[in-house]
Amino acid sequence: MRIDLHCHSTASDGTDTPAELVRNAAAAGLDVVALTDHDTTRGYAEAIAALPEGLTLVTGAELSCRIDGISMHMLAYLFDPEEPALLAERELVRDDRVPRAQGMVAKLNALGVPVAWEQVERIAAGGSVGRPHVASALVELGVVPTVSDAFTKEWLADGGRAYVEKHETDPFEAIRLIKGAGGVAVFAHPAAAKRGRTVPEAAIAEMAAAGLDGIEVDHMDHDADSRERLRGLAKELGLLVTGSSDYHGSRKDVSLGEYTTDPEVYGEIIRRATGAFPVPGTGGA
User: Fold this and answer.
1) Could you tell me which residues are beta bridge partners of residue 59?
2) Can you name the residues that pair with 234 across neighbouring β-strands?
3) Which residues contact 154 (CB under 8 A, 6 or more apart)?
């Protein structure tokens, strides 16, 4: 089985619609794909309706969190999307995205960059707006060559000249909410140092004690040494090890299934989840 447990659609900051994502996942030879848009479940219905036969969909989300001033992401799998407490927190985070992005546009304008809010809205196309949409606007204007080049201190990285903070969930609260909604919690790309400061291992150990299920190890932003270190940490803490592409369509230079999760780990995620079940494809719309 080929299993990719971290992918984004136009419901947040990917460039494939949810329907295109599942069709492309099947074409890439995947058996299982997870839809984990940022702080939203809006893409579920379209993905399920288009799900090709032979492909299984894992519903999920990537939750925005912050600990001790460090931004981090928590992958939530197979939770009940209507559970009130987690739904309210997702809406709180999502509702803060628009004023935050507008604030980044204002800062860029003050720096002499002629980005317009209407341009960012067009790029987001109704999705959960975020920094990648602002970064894409900078690419369109020729300010930076790629989206990744916008995530520096010069521009949009944490603490950068055009950075604006947003509401982010405490990770311990995120774990509590995910588990309360019957889901499974996995810390996304914990060693992605090029994104900014990373969470100390001591804090990861505290999260493990609080119910964290796993950490994402095989990821495009982790080098070989980081992966080896994280595998050792996961073994020490009794955490599951996942691998995922973090696919964003054309917005990132990574392919569906470029990094995958072991079938035994996938089986354990299913076993632990009580909020939802994987959806098998029936041929799609």
Assistant:
1) 35
2) none
3) 160, 161
Find out whether 202 and 210 touch, Cβ atoms under 8 Å.
Answer: no
Q: Are 247 and 273 in contact (CB under 8 A)?
A: no
CA 252 from centroid of its chain's CA atoms? 13
23: tokens are 């069709």
Q: How far apart are CA 46 and CA 163, in angstroms?
A: 32
Say how many C-beta atoms besides its own lie within 10 A of residue 41's C-beta. Answer: 21
- With H, G, I as helix, E, B as strand and everything else as coil, classify residue 116: coil
pTM to 2 decimals?
Answer: 0.87
Q: What's the CA gap between 71 and 112, in Å, rounded?
A: 27
Residues 6+ apart with CB under 8 A from 254: 220, 245, 246, 247, 248
Q: Measure CA 82 to chain center.
A: 19
95-112 per-position pLDDT tens digit: 888 999 999 999 999 999
Q: What is the CA radius of gyration of the chain?
A: 18
3-state SS class at 236: helix
Separation of alpha carbons 94 and 249, rounded Å: 21
∠ CA(276), CA(83), CA(244), 5° rounding?
50
Mean pLDDT on 140-144? 97
CA distance 238 to 210: 12
Quick one: tokens of 143? 């300010």
Q: Which long-range contacts (CB under 8 A, 24 or more apart) does 142-146 make?
A: 143/113, 146/253
| Rounded Cα–Cα distance for residues 4 and 244 (Å) | 5
- The count of other CB atoms within 10 Å of the CB of residue 19 is 19
Rounded alpha-carbon distances, angstroms, from residue 94 to 137, 190, 219, 241: 20, 22, 25, 28
pLDDT-based confidence at residue 85 (cuts at 50, 70, 90): very high
